[in-house]
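Training component of the fellowship. As part of building independent skills, the fellow (R.M.) carried out the full modelling exercise for a liganded target. The chosen ligand was zinc ion. The inputs are recorded below so that the supervisory panel can assess the work.
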Amino acid sequence: MFTVASKEVLLDGLDRAEKFRPELGEVVALLRELLAVSAGPHRPALPIALDEARRRLIAGEAILRDTDQVVDTGVLAGLERAVKGILAGRYRRDIPQEAIAAEARRLFLRAQAWTLAEHLGEVDTAPSFRCPVCGGEPALAALSKPDGKRLLLCGDCDTEWLAPRLGCPFCGCEEPSRFGYHPGEDPAYRLYSCDACRHYLRTVDHREQSEPLPLPVESWLTKDLDQAATAAGYQG
Ligand SMILES: [Zn+2]
Ligand SMILES: [Zn+2]
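Fellow's submitted model of the complex:
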C-alpha cells in the first residue's frame, strides 16, 4: 500500500501551517505556486504499462527505474521553465540551473506518483525501506495513530509507504546500540541517527498531535525549505 497526498490535502495543510506559523507566509506562498504548476497541465504520461508497474510493485522493485523516470522530456522542460519563472519572480536573482532542474524533476516524479497511487495504491505489499514508486530514500518518518506504525515519506516523489518498525531505513542496520535518539523541544518531533551509515531521519509522532499536517508539508517546512533558501543564495 502507498499513498501520495493530493493537491487538495496539501493546500489544506499549507493553510493550517500558515495559521499557526504566520512567519512562514512567504515560503507557503512559494509552495502554493509550485504545487499549482505540478498539479496543472504538466501531468506526464507513465513511461510503462500499468500491468508492468503492478508486477514490479508486487516483486518489491521500484516501479519507475532510473532509466525510465524521465522519458517525457517535453513535460519536464515545461516544468523547468515554470519553476524558473516562479523562483526568479520571488528571489529576483539568478537561480542555479541545478536547483531548478532538481525541483522540476521532483514535481515531475510526484505527478507520476499521483497517477500510480490512483491505480495501484491499494495493492498489498511488504513493508520496505525504499520508495515503492521511484526507489528513493526517505526524507521524513511518521509514527501513525493509534498504533505507532512507521510511515516513510519519499524525498524524491512524496510517496508515503509503510516501513518495517525497526532498523535503519538507509543501511538496514538492526543493532539498537548503533542508533541515536534526539528528542526535540516539541514531544512530537525527534531525530533518529545511525552510527553505521551516519544518516539521520527526522521523525514526527502523530500520536502527540491532535491535527497532524500532511507529511510533505512537514518536510517542506523544514528541510526542503532549506534547499529553496540555498537555491536563492542563502546559507543555513
Ligand atoms: Zn519516491
Ligand atoms: Zn544506517
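The panel noted the following from the submitted structure. Strands lie at 2-4, 138-143, 150-154, 159-162, 179-183, 189-194, 200-205. Residues 168, 170-171, 173, 194, 196-197, 199 surround zinc ion (ligand 2) (CB under 6 Å).
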